[in-house]
Description:
Elements: H1 5-21, H2 27-39, H3 44-61, H4 69-81, E1 95-100, H5 107-120, E2 125-128, H6 135-148, E3 151-153, H7 161-174, E4 179-183, H8 191-208, E5 215-221, H9 226-239, E6 243-247, H10 257-265, E7 269-273, E8 281-283, H11 286-294
Parallel strand pairs: 1-4, 1-5, 2-3, 2-4, 5-6, 6-7
Antiparallel strand pairs: 7-8
The chain binds guanosine-5'-diphosphate (GDP).
Guanosine-5'-diphosphate binds at residues 101, 103-109, 140, 186, 247-248, 250, 273-276, 280.
Amino acid sequence: KAGLTKTRQNFVEKVEQIFTGYKKIDEELYEELEEVLIRSDVGVNTSMELVERLRKEVKQRKISDPQELTKVLQELIVELLGKEETIAFAERGPSVILVVGVNGVGKTTTIGKLANRFKLDGKRVVLAAGDTFRAAAIDQLEVWGERSGVEVIKQREGADPAAVAYDAVQAAKSREMDVVLVDTAGRLHNKVNLMEELRKVKRVIEREIPGAPHEVLLVLDATTGQNALQQAKLFQEVAGVTGIVLTKLDGTAKGGVVLGIQGETRIPVKWIGIGEGMEDLRPFVPKDFAEALFG
Ligand code: GDP
């Protein structure tokens, strides 16, 4: 439930206001609903799709009272969000999780939180400081490594990220580690470079461990709303994303973007960030999310 208060106010309370403001279900109601959904960062296509589905349900179930629509909309949202998706781990040997995303979205923090979580689950974790473009990124990853008692494999600033990934995977194999979390650079200004760099890192990992990387997690900042949706589309194209971590859901009114991401990319949201602390990462459970939203 934590952190969804503002999204609830911005989204569900407005939707409910529409439903209580109408005596019957008509075209105007649907239009107003669509507008509220779009303004709540649900995204144009997903908003239209939800309203379309709602129309169908109303017809099929012969609903005439607008008050009944909240319940139906909640059901449709749960359906849209799909089932809970877990992280893919290797059956044997180290699992490699590549973490991608634009600078500032909370990538390093998320890696730190995940490392801590996996460690608490009894896994042996190693981190790869693959964002070699910024010295600060390497330092920060080390701070998180110390905090969670996890080793960080690094090279100097400017080194080849693929070489860092290689070192980390080697270390994981020889020391029988369970999880390698690989940080990557998040410079977006050059799509071709970004793509090349990620491809090379992936290639090295694939060569060392068949079937790896087992996950490509994209970190997105919920407070950026529609930008997050654009980034999801871009990284889906360049990196073959298998799951999303949506950060900073605490305190933002833009939580509706979860629906837009699911509706428009079909990439499952696997974790949500709800604060800056080590513990502030939760598996994303669609049903719970919808319930928390609708209070
Ligand atoms: P990076 O550049 O993507 O590696 O981003 P960082 O991990 O350095 O995070 C950027 C800022 O966002 C830091 O101040 C973090 O504390 C903050 N941050 C990360 N995740 C969350 C979250 O879930 N909630 C909040 N409120 N802040 C977060």
